Every structure is written in structure tokens, then in C-alpha cells.
Amino acid sequence: MACNINVESILGQGIFATTSSKKLQAFPSHNYKPNVISCVAIGPTHKVPQLPWKLVFHEKERPLLSNEKFGIYGGKFVPETLISPLTKLDYEFNSALRDPQFQMDLQVALKDYVGRETPLYFAQRLTDYYKSINKGIGPDIYLKREDLNHGGAHKINNAIAQAMLAKRMGCKKVVASTGAGQHGVATAAACAKLSLECTIFMGTLDMERQPSNVLLMNHLGAKVKSVEGSFKDAMSEGIRNWVNDLETSYFLAGAAIGPHPCPTMVREFQSIIGKETRKQAMDKWGGKPHVLVACVGSGSNALGLFHEFIQDEDVRLIGIEAGGTGLDSGKHSATMARGEVGVYHGAMSYLLQDEEGQIIGPHSIGVGLEYPGVSPELSYLKDTERAEFSTVTDEEAIEAYKRLCKLEGIFPALESSHALAFLDKLCSTLKDGEKVIVNLSGRGDKDAEAVFNHTPKHE
């Protein structure tokens, strides 16, 4: 079977884009309909007005989790050489999900190593603050404390599970890419625990902004390799490194992006967040939350919280993107707000791209939100209008960081602060006593210097 995709485009050096239309037909049902195909794209590498690719379909046994595509999004837009390794990974992933011993071992690791379950914390003073500026009326605000996980973020949920899968598959080496460094730290920690060789690729710009996480990765025994650029460039280099050693290495995806099964795996291993949240909400007030809010870079923490509630249409799902210095400034990471459909890093989703179909460099003070694409599943949720998306600027995120520090004694990651900042717009629109849960996806000790540098010295 021939495949004339340019490999460099798929791995991120160029862009394999699709339609210039920002509006796609919404799908009539929010229910997922698993698509049991492997997709090999054969076609042009430039933006075109329609979807012209011929897709070669390989029928196969339906696995337990077979969401290769969410509507038109996702798929396997990869060179022929990667079809077999990805198919094997899909099989091993589903095999592990069916294995009671793997599931038991994972639950033990999540409890004893990661520190789950994480609290659903009632932010009393933050709640009082928003009520005080709205005539005493407002929602009750809860924080899902993923910042209390081992490593300080939600990333370890997925990293420990995939490292266990790599060990189960007999892999000796793990390769990963990281932006803010949280996935790198989580992967390095999981590999240290499981005695796996670990190599982390990180953009030079991100290494300069997150030196503490680089040190942690080194202390945990990982080799940290710099890549010119930012996370999108590190992602490309990580995939390229894996391709060169498919027999013994494992690419540990930290974001719900890339070719199938990577987005489904990351979402599945992060879905513990929403599952715990449902149980905790029932225990605390005997019902479901009214609104869930999470920041969105590529989408792993948002999907981790949202996925459990997708079928509960009375629960609003709101994703908050990085508005940077403003959407009109061009310095942002607002893929849902300003992106168009295209293919990048092996999957179809919304992308930030110019008229020529080339990637537009993203920007955010929250380094972990700097990615020009987004999860295929979130792209689908946008088109079906099951999830809502908004933006928050750098300055608004910094103010939210400071507010939570002063009111609750909790220092959130700047990524999570974007979700917190959206409360400024949300709270006045809700009824008194409605329940809002914000996913506090990480802690902000890594961001203290960045906030200080952006704070006027007289404050």
C-alpha cells in the first residue's frame, strides 16, 4: 500500500491541513459511535476547500476502546511504517484494560504512589468573594485538587499507567515530550519507579522558563534533550526518536493528541478525575455539579474531568483556552476560538494555521497551554456543541493565581489559573447555590517567578 504523505509534515516540520471553513456540520447525536478503522491518508499537503483524502479502511476485530475517530476528527494520518506499531499499541492497550491483574496493579499505584483520590475542595472564601460582588448571590465553587498528586499535577495519572503498559509490553526505553515540564517530571518519576530508561524532549524556550522542572527530571534519572523551539517542536522530535527505535522504545504521550490510540489512551487514563468527581459530588451534596470548568491546551485535564459527564446533558462543560495578550494580537493559544480544521502530529483536529496552512506559533504565560492544536475529542465536542469554550488573557490568569493564593492559601499552576479566571465571567450568570467545579490541574510553585516578573514592583 503506497502512502505519499511527507513524513516531515506529519511529524510537525510542516503542516498537513484540511479545509479553510471554520464551520462544520454538527453531528446529530452526542453519543460516541466507535469507528473500527485504521486511516492512511493519501493526498495533498496543502490547505484545500474540501476534504479530498482517500481513506484506506482496514476492518479488524472491534476492541474494547476503539474510538479511532470522533466524527471527522482523530484518525491515523501517519506514514505506512507507523501503522503496525500503532495497531500493536492499540491491541496491547485494550488487552491491559481487560486484564484484572493490570487493573488491580494500576489501582494500587494510583492510591499508594500517585496519592489518589484527590480532594473535591469547597473554596469557601473564593465563593464568598464572588457572592460579595454580585449582591450576595452566586454559585458554590469547588476545586478538584489534582495539584495534590505526586509530582504536583494531573499528568502522573496517565504517566504511571502508560509506563506500566510499556513494562508489560517488554519495552526497555521510554521517550516523551513535554511543554511546561509537568509531563516530563511525571514520566521520569514513573520510569524511575519501574526501572525504565527515560528520555525527555523539551523545547529550549520552555527549558528557560521552567528550569526547576528540568532539574527534577534530571534528579529522577531522565535524559533531558533540548529541541529548538517549544512543545510542538519537542513533540515532533519525540515521535521521530521513537520511529527510529520501534522495537525497544515506547512513546509515552502526555497529551490527548496524535494518531490513534494515543488520544483515547490519555483520555482513558485521565478519566479517573471525572469518575472520582461524580462520586465525591454525590457524597457532598447528593447530586451532580451544574458546571465543570477546565483549562484547555491540548486537552488532557479537561477530558479527564469532562468525559465522565458527557452523557449528562444537564452538566455544562466549559473549556478555557489561553487568550495570551488578546485574540487580535495574534499572541495566543486559542485553537477553538481562532483555529481551523487540519491534520498535525498524525490526527485531524482544530489547528492554529495561516492562509498557507502553516502552523502559527502559539503563546501563553501558562507554558503547558502552548500548543497549536487540540484533542480530536474536544474538537468533536465543540462541533456538537456539547462543550463550550472561552478564552482568558495572560493578565486575567495572573490575577486569578494571586486571588486563589490570598483567599485560599493554594497556589495554582498558571495553566489552571486560566480556568479560575473564567469565574469572573461565569459566576454572575449562575443561580445562587449552583455547584461549579474547577479542575485545579496543577500547582504553581513552578510559576512563582513568572508571576513575580509580571507583577508591578509597587504591589
TrEMBL record:
Q: What pathway, per the record?
A: Amino-acid biosynthesis; L-tryptophan biosynthesis; L-tryptophan from chorismate: step 5/5
Describe the location of the Tryptophan synthase beta chain-like PALP domain by residue ranges: 116-442
Q: What InterPro entries does this protein's entry cite?
A: Trp_synth_b_CS (IPR006653), Trp_synth_beta (IPR006654), Trp_synth_beta/beta-like (IPR023026), TrpB-like_PALP (IPR001926), TrpB-like_PALP_sf (IPR036052)
Q: Which cofactor does it need?
A: pyridoxal 5'-phosphate
Q: Where on the tree of life does the source sit, at the highest rank?
A: Eukaryota
Q: Which CDD domains does UniProt cross-reference here?
A: Trp-synth_B
What keyword terms does UniProt attach to this protein?
A: Amino-acid biosynthesis, Aromatic amino acid biosynthesis, Lyase, Pyridoxal phosphate, Tryptophan biosynthesis
Q: Which SUPFAM superfamilies match?
A: Tryptophan synthase beta subunit-like PLP-dependent enzymes
What EC number is given for this enzyme?
A: 4.2.1.20
Give the GO cellular component terms, alphabetically.
Answer: cytoplasm
One Pfam family linked to the record:
PALP
Recall the GO molecular function terms of this protein's record. Answer: tryptophan synthase activity
Record field: catalytic activity: (1S,2R)-1-C-(indol-3-yl)glycerol 3-phosphate + L-serine = D-glyceraldehyde 3-phosphate + L-tryptophan + H2O
- Record protein name field: Tryptophan synthase
